[in-house]
Amino acid sequence: MKPKRIIFDSSFEKKFTKYKSRLTDNERNKLRERFEIFKQNVFDNRLKTHKLKGGLEEYYAFSISYRDRLIFKLIDDKTVLLIEIGSHDICY
């Protein structure tokens, strides 16, 4: 699925800014690369996108790195809402 619209709230924007500030240049490049893939196809195999379970069962996550992921929700077939970014510990 190629999203036409990617949205987020101010809470995500703050978390994203803080997350990016602690990354190395190589990690920032990898994040940029992951977002480019995500913008083309949220279910691209390279992202390891998967549906979450439990209290987050209406959300999906994709891998940014071994340690980090981004959680999102499909609003409709054209819109994605970004929810959370960070380690697995932070996201639960």
Describe the structure.
35% of the residues lie in helices and 30% in strands. With 92 residues, the protein is α+β, with helices and mostly antiparallel strands. It has one domain (5-87): YaeB-like fold (2-Layer Sandwich), CATH 3.30.2310.20. The longest helix is centred in the middle third of the chain and has 16 residues, at 25-40.
What's this, in brief?
The protein has 92 residues and is an alpha+beta fold.
Count of folded domains: 1
The unreliable regions are none
The general outline is: globular
Look up the CATH topology.
YaeB-like fold
Order of helical and strand elements? EHHEEEEH
Mean pLDDT metric: 93
Q: Do you know the CATH architecture?
A: 2-Layer Sandwich
What's the assembly state of these chains? Answer: single chain
Side by side, the strands of the main sheet go 1-5-4-3-2
The value of Rg in angstroms is 12 Å
State the share of residues found in helices, binned by percent: 25-40%
By CATH reckoning, the class would read Alpha Beta
What is the strand content? 25-35%
Please give the number of β-strands: 5
Measured distance between first and last alpha carbons? 25 Å
Largest sheet data: 5 strands, mixed
Structural class: alpha+beta
Q: So, the CATH homologous superfamily?
A: RelE-like
Question: How many DSSP helices?
Answer: 3
